[in-house]
Amino acid sequence: MANSKKAGTKKTTKGRKPRKQRRSIWRALLSLSIKLALIFSVFAAIGLFYLDAQIRTKFEGKRWSIPAKVYARPLDLYAGLDLSIADLKVELKGLGYRFVKRARAAGEAEIGSSKVNIYTRGFEFLDGKEISQRISIHFFQGGVSKITAQNGSPISITRLEPILIGGIYPKNNEDRDLIRLSQAPRGLAQALIVTEDRSYYDHFGISPKGIARAMWVNLRAGRFIQGGSTLTQQLIKNFYLTSERTLIRKLIEMPMAMVLDFRYSKDEILEAYLNEVYLGQGGSRAIHGFGLAAQYYFGRPIAELQLHQVALLAAMVKGPSYYNPRRRPKAALSRRNLVLKMMFNDALITAKEYKYYKGLPLGIVKQKSLHKGAYPAYLDLVRRKLKESYNEEDLSSEGLRIFTSLNPISQAKSEKALRQGIAALKKKYAKKANNLQASMVVTDPQTGEVISIIGGTSTRYQGFNRATDAIRQVGSLIKPAVYLSALQQGYTLASMLDDSPVSIDAQGSKPWRPRNFDKKSHGSVPLYLALAKSYNLSTARVGMSVGLDSVIDTVHKLGVPREMPKYPSLLLGAQGMTALEVATMYQTIAANGFLMPMRAIRAVTDKDGNELSRYPFKINQVIDSQSIYQLQYAMHQVVKQGTARYLNSKIPSQMNLAGKTGTTNNQRDSWFAGFSGNRLAVVWLGRDDNSSLPFTGSSGALRVWSRYMQSEALQPFESVVPEGIEFSAVDPASGYAIDPSCDNALRMPFRSNAIPNFVSNCGGSGTVPSTAKPVKKSSNWLERLFGD
Amino acid sequence: MSRIYRTSRLLTAISALLVLAGCSVSGVNSVSIEDRSITGNSINKPSAVVNQSEQVEVTALDIRPSFKASTNAQEVINTEVSSQPKAPEIAQTVQKPATIALLNTASYQTNNGRLRAAQSSLERALRISPKDPEVYLSLGEVHRRLGEFVQSEQITLKGIAVAAGQSTKLRKLWTALAKIRSEAGDTVGANKAFQKSQSY
User: Fold this and answer.
1) Does position B21 have pLDDT exceeding 70, yes or no?
2) Do the domain assignments include residue B4?
3) The one catalytic residue among A476, A676, A698, A778
4) Is B46 close to A62, i.e. CB distance below 8 A?
5) Which of B24, B26, B52 lies at the smallest CB-CB distance from A215?
6) E strands of A131-277, at which residues?
7) Check: complex ipTM more than 0.85
8) For A629, nearest residue in chain B (alpha carbons)
9) Residue A648 sits in a domain of what CATH number?
10) Which range of residues forms the domain containing residue B151?
11) Which of the ends of chain A has fewer CB neighbours closer than 10 A, N or C?
12) Residue A196 is a catalytic residue
């Protein structure tokens, strides 16, 4: 067997020798080409494998860096809420609600004279979901009197979704809101396909027909008119490749598009496209995806867009800057109508619809009205706080959701008050009031939440944040800390203080000789009045008697841990602080001695709403209730008869405001810090170059403060009388207790064990020698208990 | 043969596509599609979940009891001397329906073991009715259950401050404080609070 086969083979070879040579060339060629083809296909296979891996990694992994979303506080709605219809409108505008005759769909509101109907959008909060529903809010006497559901049943409490106020962007400044294809409004996909890639659902990633058509059109016109890229190719280009326009890129784009098309469904690819596409530039922020574009151009969620708005977005894909509806409305309108026409031609919309929508204006919101980016100072504070616990990359890429306590209504009011207040000062002081700068912090004294912040006179400018970074001398704003130390050490509100000139030796420099603002001395004054009138001499004396250490300790306890040099001038506010620190200090006073860390953030969740961290309501009692109560009384006297008397003519006395003015040497800083029951505000006016101002704390900052407080729905400051406090009538001229029926009698709070001695007549400065200082340093309760 | 033919046809097709593609690259006078694609190096690596640094004051999600309540070593701030005169009794204000609703929600959430959600609801109630002692009482209770005794005690103390003059509320609050302190291991403080509660 083996032999015969061998022979046969030999024979065959022998007989075809000349043909064999010819054939061997062919064979060599064939085998070469087979080898080449093999190598080629191996490389192609490796290439495809590589591309495939690349495509899958990115398409199935985290596709985009999603900036953290920062939200304002949600507006709680309940019967008894102090809210005007105008304020509610501000909130609804911020949320992009449409004001209509009848609210039929989510995102619509009807405003009546005493009733507002809202079809809410619903929102998933940390502590529960608010459903999308139609509610009626009834107003009566400037507040909400009742809320009812559509079926008329009362709703005890509900809340609107929070306004998105900003984001924390990655280095490439890309911003986007992801959407699902199912969330896309009617017509969006169709409009895109009809304008960008007609055969999208039929081709295999690339469209030779489309390319040929484009080439034909371009050749005939002699210039570039049409591109032949499919939506898949556009996605590949933006998603995977660099922005260079090279042939190599173009070459690699096609096989990638084919692989992508092979791997994923048309709808998946379309969804990615909807989120990837670039649709404009908002400052340094690149607007990507239709979800964000809907917010950026129309101020509302994409699902609520109407057909003409959808057509405009689809129209802009071709050239977001050329067809920018804000800058080139004409070009945008004509292209939008072209898109509508193409949709009509393809029978995607009816003739009636085409006619109707083509006649509508662009419907773009003003960029200024957008809330995103409108709160640079507040966002700055939020970002700082976040950086303590999160790294930059997670903040700008993980799609975190940050819930803050910013109140957009209050922020708008404080900005308005500042603008008008400064305008009034400029009118009064003319050139002397040029180049004014300002900062303002507003908090809720009950919860320690920062409600609004202003970092400079250009409130939308993202620059130096004076509220958190400008360390300015606080002047008399420090005095409450001085008097609080005194009250804690046994002084009473009626302790008579010496307001005569004083000289205090300072190490290594000239003795410190403070002066009163009016350059006079006021003899013997009761403690409460020395604070109310902001007398410097008596303050310096009482401060030296309680000790600098004690005063510094009090400042620290009130929530300002800043290190302070122990100079006597500290007592009159030579120490610098930021407005936010001042707010913290006054916050503790307003909250009856309970220190609450200033909070701007309530909680942080991941993109799916799972809680990552929360910043809870935390309190710590640092000052005893009795001392704080007496201090509050004295600070109320500042408003009633002291340096903030101006407020009496502006705000009803029932509001029981308390506060303190502050003016520094050479009038470089003008401050006011004060509070009602529900609002605490600190206002600073000054100049960045530290030059003198033409006004003091009470003729400057106080005016802005007053404007702001007048614009808010205030609640009176009511501090319940703590245990261990009793009221007694005293003669303010002598500090002695007198009969309450006397004309000069003034009722004020004392520790039960430190009520001044009683004099039977109505006292008066004549009857009691002022040198007696009867209750100057009333003994502490131990001494009183055991006698001295 | 047919293989070569096929290969060459493929090559022709590819080169034709290349030419077409070349033609479809934009020219000079065109309205170009703006290209703001991500550059190669910024392609995202899947990154780890959010890092939390350690020195930050955020409430950890896992619940750890802390046993530092009422060790105000530096000083006793609230003089809990029962001889102190009481503040005059004041009329209790009517609770807002919204607050009642939130207190109910919170108690439902507490009973279901959703203490963090209850905390959120009560903080919301606090913003609406910051002078309602009931809110502090409930929030203190939630913190006690979470083992956060310092906060529990402080919030209850704040409740006591706002409840001045309302003896029924005060009795409840001091009783709650006694419980918190005893759970935190502060027997002396608990006894004081209990005695105080009996004085109302």
Assistant:
1) no
2) no
3) A476
4) yes
5) B24
6) 134-140, 143-149, 157-159, 164-168, 174-176
7) no
8) B161
9) 3.40.710.10
10) 97-198
11) N
12) yes
